[in-house]
Design brief:
- By secondary structure, the chain is α/β, with parallel strands linked by helices.
- The chain has seven helices and six strands, in the order βαβααβαβααββα.
- It binds flavin-adenine dinucleotide.
- Residues 9, 11, 13-16, 18, 95-99, 140-143, 185-186, 193 line the site of flavin-adenine dinucleotide.
């Protein structure tokens, strides 16, 4: 299996860094091919706009999806698109920031999940262009699990993740695996952190038998 890990943390010695390094070791050890897009190390520019393109199809007035459809992508975007096309499994590794993805990772989605390359008006969800691929979120939170339980102060983690799991990943047709979440990492004991890393290793070794959360039941939505 070909695996792309898109990793968004500014500090290599962070717990996210440890999860990313572990995933590379475990997946490579299990015989998979792994590529990592380390967005901070790459100084990935998150703001989508005219600089995404080497040539403008509509020079008078900028239309983002129209230019994406024309497909004159800058080399750094083409390189990310090639990695995404190559992978069978996409892992997004990040700390939860403001209930969502860090801006650098959201920018990677904005720019790489491009109209015409990743979706179009007739291809999304069950007829999505990336059917056959799988995707999984691997992330950390500052708050403990109890705050993300149903009825918890932050609300249900499943509802909070809907815009990513459904609106970004399943939207492209990918099967979405349950997220791996390390809760409350800044205040965990050494034993709890080791237990999370052991559980993540176990998850990575059992990806192929893990049931997706999307698609669920009969999905008929079209864009
Ligand atoms: C802008 C912003 C918005 C945020 N919004 C939210 C939010 O909406 N919800 C929320 O819950 N939280 C939020 N947070 C908190 C954030 O999610 C956490 O700080 C983050 O998830 C912690 O992950 P980390 O990788 O940065 O941990 P770190 O602080 O890097 O790691 C935790 C500890 O683990 C240690 N460690 C590293 N590697 C290992 C290893 N191999 N073995 C054992 N220990 C190790 C580190 O040294 C550190 O002591 C926000 C933070 C910011 C900056």
């Amino acid at each position: 299996m070909n695996v792309l890990i898109v990793y968004a943390h500014p500090e290599p010695r962070s717990f996210n860094g440890a999860m990313k390094d572990l995933a590379v070791d475990v997946l490579t050890g299990a015989g998979h091919k792994v590529q990592v897009s380390d967005l901070y190390a790459m100084k990935f520019q998150p703001a989508g706009g005219p600089d995404d393109f080497t040539d403008r199809a509509f020079p008078d007035q900028f239309g983002y999806q129209a230019e994406q459809a024309a497909g004159h992508f800058a080399p750094e975007l083409k390189a990310e698109m090639d990695k995404l096309a190559w992978c069978d499994l996409l892992i997004l590794q990040f700390p939860l920031w403001w209930f969502s993805l860090p801006g650098i990772l959201k920018g990677w989605i904005d720019r790489v999940f491009a109209f015409g390359f990743a979706y179009d008006r007739s291809r999304s969800y069950e007829s999505g262009m990336f059917r056959g691929k799988r995707a999984m979120l691997a992330f950390t939170t500052g708050a403990p699990a109890s705050m993300y339980a149903a009825g918890g102060r932050h609300g249900s983690i499943d509802e909070l993740l809907l815009h990513v799991n459904r609106g970004m990943l399943y939207f492209l047709g990918m099967e979405v695996l349950p997220p791996f979440i390390a809760y409350g990492t800044p205040r965990l004991s050494a034993e709890d952190k080791a237990a999370y890393l052991a559980a993540y290793s176990e998850r990575l070794l059992n990806l192929e038998s893990t049931e997706p959360i999307y698609p669920a039941g009969s999905e008929t939505t079209t864009f």
